[in-house]
Structures are given as structure tokens and as C-alpha cells.
Design brief:
single chain; 254 residues; alpha+beta; Phosphorylase Kinase, domain 1; D-amino Acid Aminotransferase, Chain A, domain 1; 6-stranded antiparallel beta sheet; 6 helices; 27% helix; globular
């Protein structure tokens, strides 16, 4: 890990001061949490895998015109990103009923939704990341209406692209959580995708068997968590076709 000034430590990442003004180094940890930090664990190699998977996805999204904070991967656990003002809202896009959504509406898990549904959650560990609506977001000044419009538009575009990307490797994008930030460029500001996109923040099921390849394996004590993340990376072409390996050494980033 680079010896830089630490700015923030979250559940899955540590942020350090970047080498150039307006940049941040994002370090991916092996720590895993669930249920608002009530369940904790360590998944060996998860940080390396999430770094690689998120890099892969961010680059592909950038290629189709989705603005992101990603600049480049630095090493097996770190990537360089633009410094942004994070909007304290988690945007969740759901294609299939699963998790808390299925419980909330007493739906069978796996039921297809009539169309993608976008939900907002206020980022607050103390409050348990409550579900909020647009009125909350604008009334409390977390984001303005034009910013919300940008966030919804980008979230749905991301959903369209990622649904096809993952379907191409036999995975169903059930739902995913993303965050946005304000990127200041001189006197202009625009909304960009921030944080990460990985099996930590997406539900990914095998299209034929519904086998889970995401953090639900940790949440629900299904086992083989690292192997599931490795399988996602393998299908995306990040790991060799020979199959999952022990993700401890620097050879992982070759």
C-alpha cells in the first residue's frame, strides 16, 4: 500500500491522497460486511478481485459514454480516481425481486420485475441507510432535481449496458447499487459514477442455474465466497481460462 496520507476508511476501501491534485488513491480491502456492519468477515483476495472487476466495468462504461471517476489501476489493490464530492445517496436499480425488496413486497425471490425499478437509500450507518424518496433528497439538500435527473438517466443507461455485458458471460444482473459524485472542472460541475461496481455491489446469478456469484454468499453463509468472485472475474476474461487460483500474489494482475 502506498505511504500516502489517509483521507477515509470505509467498510471495503481506504482512500488516500492522490499523487496529483484532484486525485485519490482507492485501496480495496479484503474485509466483508453485511446487515449494516453487524456481520463482519475477511475474504482473502476479495480486494484484488474487486479492484480488477471494477476497473474492467468502469473502463467499459467509459467507452460507451458513461462519465466515471476512474482514471487507471495502479497495482493489484489500488486504483487512481478523480476526487469528487460524493452525493450521500445509494442508487439501487432492480431487475429481479431479491433480498430486502422481495421481503418488503412479499414477492418470490427471482420474480422478474415489469421494468427496472430505481430506489434511493440515504448513506448513514447510524440510521441504517434508510429508503428515501426524491422529496427527502431535494428537501434536505442532498441533491438538486437536475442532479437527480442525471443520476436516474445514468443509472438506467448503466443498467442497460451491464445487463447485456453480464448476459454475454451467462450472468443475470439481478440488481446493483451505485454512487454518484460531483466532479468540478473549473467552474463547471457534472455528475459522474463513483465508488465501485463489483460482486460486492451487484447481485449476479447464473442464467441457467440461478447460482449466486456475489456477496449474498457471505450474507447467507453459502460458502465459497472467494470462488464466486473468481468465477465472475474468469467469465469476464480477467482471470485465465484455467480457472480460479489462489489470489494472494502479484501474478494476479498480469
Amino acid at each position: 500500500m502506498s505511504r500516502r496520507r489517509q483521507l477515509y476508511e470505509g467498510k471495503a476501501k481506504i482512500l488516500f491522497e492522490g499523487p496529483e491534485p484532484g486525485t485519490i488513491v482507492q485501496y480495496f480491502k479484503d474485509d466483508a460486511t453485511a446487515f449494516n456492519n453487524q456481520k463482519r468477515g475477511v475474504i482473502t483476495g476479495k480486494g484484488v478481485l474487486n479492484n480488477r472487476i471494477s476497473e474492467f466495468v468502469m473502463v467499459r462504461l467509459g467507452e460507451v459514454g458513461i462519465p466515471t471517476h476512474f482514471l487507471r489501476r495502479l497495482n493489484m489493490r489500488e486504483q487512481l480516481v478523480r476526487e469528487v464530492d460524493i452525493i450521500p445517496i445509494e442508487v439501487v436499480v432492480r431487475n429481479v425481486a431479491a433480498g430486502s425488496f422481495a421481503q418488503r413486497f412479499k414477492m418470490e425471490e427471482g420474480a422478474a420485475l415489469p421494468r427496472p425499478i430505481v430506489e434511493y437509500f440515504y448513506k448513514s450507518d447510524e440510521l441504517g441507510d434508510p429508503l428515501v424518496c426524491e422529496e427527502h433528497i431535494t428537501a434536505f439538500g442532498w441533491a438538486a432535481y437536475p442532479e437527480l435527473d442525471d443520476m436516474i438517466s445514468l443509472a438506467l443507461r448503466i443498467n442497460d449496458y451491464l445487463s447485456g455485458l453480464f448476459a454475454g458471460v451467462g450472468l443475470r444482473l439481478v440488481d446493483f447499487k451505485i454512487e454518484f459524485g460531483r466532479l468540478w472542472e473549473e467552474e463547471d460541475v457534472r455528475i459522474v459514477l463513483a465508488d465501485e461496481i463489483s460482486p460486492d455491489s451487484c447481485r449476479l446469478w447464473d442464467m441457467k442455474t440461478n447460482e449466486k456469484y456475489d456477496k449474498d454468499r457471505f450474507r447467507r453463509d453459502l460458502g465459497n465466497v472467494a470462488e464466486a468472485y473468481q468465477e465472475v472475474a474468469r467469465r469476464l476474461g480477467i482471470l485465465p481460462e484455467a480457472g480460479p487460483r489462489d489470489l494472494k500474489g502479484p501474478e494476479m494482475v498480469q
